[in-house]
Design brief:
This protein has about 280 residues and is α+β, with helices and mostly antiparallel strands. It is built from 9 helices and 8 strands. The longest helix has 17 residues. About 25% of the residues are buried.
Length: about 280
C-alpha cells in the first residue's frame, strides 16, 4: 500500500496524474483537504510541487493540541556552558571584550559592528528589552570555575498557538566559536523549546550566502526547506534566506546525538572531539 501510494503521489507531482482534489479518496494516508490547498490549472493538473511523501491524517489531526508556552527569563545550565537572560549591565562588558577587534562576527547580523563599548552596550540594552524575543547570554564554563559571557542567541518569532518558534540573532565571539560550550548552548535552547515549552516546530533562518550558518544548521540536525528569495533587506542589501526546521517528533533522535557528542568520553585529554556530531547523527540513523 505504501509503495502504491508513493507512486500515485509522484505521478501527481510530476503532472502525469490529472486528479482534481474532489476525486481524491480519503485513506492511504492522503488528505483531501491538502489537495484542495494545491493550485490546479485549467487542464486540471497540479500547479505546485507537492510533498515527496503522502500526508498522514494522523499527523494532521491536532484535536488534542495545546498551545505552547512562551519562553521565560530563566537560566539554562549545562556541563560546558550556562545560558542566562541577557542584560547589558551583567553581560555587556564581557561581551564587548570578546568581540572588540573582531568585526567579522557582525557580518551576517542585522546590527554591528561597534567601534565603542557604549554603542555595543546600548544595542545589548535594546535586546534585553525586546518584547518580541528572548535573548540569552552564553557563558562558557572555564576549568577555574569562572564564567563570562562570550556571545548570545535569541528565541524569536514566537508563535505559541501554532507551536512555532525560531532560534536566531546568534552571535558567537571567537572565544565561543567551534567549542563545546557553543554546541551545548544550542542544545540547551532546543531542549527547552521542545521539552519545557512544548513547541512543535523549531526554525533556523539565515542569509543564503552565509555558508557557516547553513553548515551549522545541518550539523545541529535542522532540515533544509528551501530559499526564500528577496526575503529581507539587511544593512542596505537584499537578502535571500535559507530556511531550516526541526520538529518535535525529530527531537528525541537529535537529543540523543547531542548528548553522545557532549559526553566527556567523546573528547581526548586535549579537548579534541573523538567523533563529530555529524558522524554520530549518521550512525544513529
Amino acid at each position: 500500500m505504501a509503495a502504491a501510494g508513493h507512486s500515485f503521489w509522484c505521478d501527481l507531482c510530476h503532472g502525469s496524474g490529472d486528479v482534481p482534489p474532489d476525486n481524491v479518496k480519503e485513506g492511504c494516508g492522503a488528505s483531501r483537504a491538502f489537495f484542495r490547498a494545491t493550485r490546479w490549472n485549467a487542464a486540471g493538473s497540479a500547479g505546485l510541487h507537492c510533498y515527496p511523501d503522502l500526508v498522514s491524517e494522523l499527523n494532521l489531526n491536532l484535536a488534542n493540541w495545546k498551545s505552547a508556552r512562551p519562553p521565560q527569563a530563566i537560566t539554562l545550565d549545562g556541563q560546558w556552558s550556562r545560558l542566562e537572560p541577557l542584560t547589558a549591565a551583567q553581560h555587556g562588558h564581557s561581551i564587548w571584550l570578546a568581540v572588540n577587534g573582531h568585526d567579522s562576527v557582525w557580518t551576517w547580523l542585522s546590527d554591528g559592528p561597534y567601534a565603542r563599548e557604549e554603542d555595543c552596550l546600548q544595542a545589548l540594552h535594546a535586546k534585553e528589552n525586546d518584547n518580541a524575543s528572548r535573548f540569552f547570554a552564553i557563558l562558557p564554563k572555564q576549568p577555574s570555575g569562572t564564567t563570562a559571557a562570550a556571545g548570545y542567541a535569541s528565541l524569536m518569532r514566537i508563535d505559541p498557538p501554532n507551536g512555532v518558534i525560531e532560534v536566531g540573532n546568534i552571535m558567537f565571539s571567537p572565544q565561543l566559536q567551534r567549542t563545546r560550550a557553543a554546541t551545548e548552548g544550542i542544545y540547551l535552547m532546543t531542549r527547552y523549546v521542545f521539552e519545557e515549552l512544548g513547541f512543535r516546530r523549531y526554525e533556523w533562518k539565515c542569509n543564503a550566502l552565509n555558508l557557516p550558518s547553513r553548515r551549522a544548521a545541518e550539523r545541529f540536525g535542522f532540515t533544509f526547506e528551501g530559499i526564500f528569495r528577496q526575503h529581507m533587506v539587511i544593512k542596505g542589501r537584499s537578502r535571500d534566506s535559507a530556511w531550516y526546521s526541526m520538529l518535535d517528533s525529530e527531537w528525541p533522535d537529535r537529543k540523543l546525538t547531542f548528548e553522545r557528542w557532549l559526553d566527556p568520553a567523546n573528547f581526548d585529554t586535549e579537548g579534541n572531539q573523538i567523533q563529530s556530531l555529524t558522524s554520530l547523527a549518521n550512525t544513529s540513523k
